[in-house]
Design goal:
The protein has about 200 residues and is an alpha/beta fold. The protein has two domains: about 5-55, RecR Domain 1 (Helicase, Ruva Protein, domain 3), CATH 1.10.8.420; about 75-195, Dna Topoisomerase Vi A Subunit, Chain: A, domain 2, CATH 3.40.1360. Helix content is about 40%, strand content about 15%. It is built from seven helices and seven strands. Strand 1 (about 55) and strand 2 form a beta hairpin.
Length: about 200
């Protein structure tokens, strides 16, 4: 079978995306070919724009177009509570659920000795700096209920509790080993409402 190099390259690029196998990559490539050139251009421009304009918030490490994200700069947010998550996409899950009105802190990973990731490799120091202000009364640890997520939660609890700050963990309405980003809104609402001290 003769393969078109241009199409093969597009299929190859799509197949690099998470959760996209060869067949799905082919479907996406042929979909793009059938679409109007202007629609394909808009998609390409959106991808380049997000790579050019999106960085990390200098306070919480959420995705942001400016130095400070929209959540950190929102005066209506509860400044006494910080919800600690693994990745920026976890913030989107909580925000879409509409169950939480405080601030966030993104670790950009979890402690995972098998993968060579220790406490110094994620944004724990930056979290501790935020807690020095004395304004924060509660830290909600919302790492995923995986071995690494639980280990990270325990580690954070041990270093934050001595600061006199209440430390809670989201309730386990989430399946063990599950990822927060895939949880539905009701589960996340229950998880925040049912948080417990750790």
């Amino acid at each position: 079978m003769i393969k078109n190099k241009t199409i093969s390259q597009l299929i190859s690029e799509f197949s690099k995306l998470p959760g996209i196998g060869r067949k799905t990559a082919e479907r996406l490539a042929y979909y793009i070919i059938k679409e109007k050139k202007e629609d394909a251009r808009k998609l390409a421009e959106a991808i380049v724009k997000v790579k050019d304009k999106i960085g990390f918030c200098k306070i919480c490490f959420n995705y942001a177009e400016n130095d400070v994200c929209d959540i950190c700069s929102d005066p209506s947010r509860d400044k006494k509570t910080i919800c600690v998550v693994e990745e920026p996409r976890d913030i989107w899950a909580f925000e879409n659920a509409g169950s939480y009105g405080g601030l966030y802190h993104v670790l950009l990973g979890v402690i995972s000795p098998l993968d060579g990731v220790g406490p110094d490799d994620i944004k724990i120091r930056e979290l501790l700096r935020r807690l020095e202000s004395g304004e924060v009364e509660e830290v909600i640890i919302a790492t995923s209920p995986t071995v690494e997520g639980d280990a990270t939660a325990i580690y954070l609890s041990k270093i934050i509790k001595p600061l006199g700050i209440k430390v809670t963990r989201i309730a386990s309405g989430l399946p063990a080993g599950g990822e927060i980003e895939y949880a539905d809104s009701i589960t996340l609402i229950k998880a925040i409402q049912g948080r417990r001290p750790i």
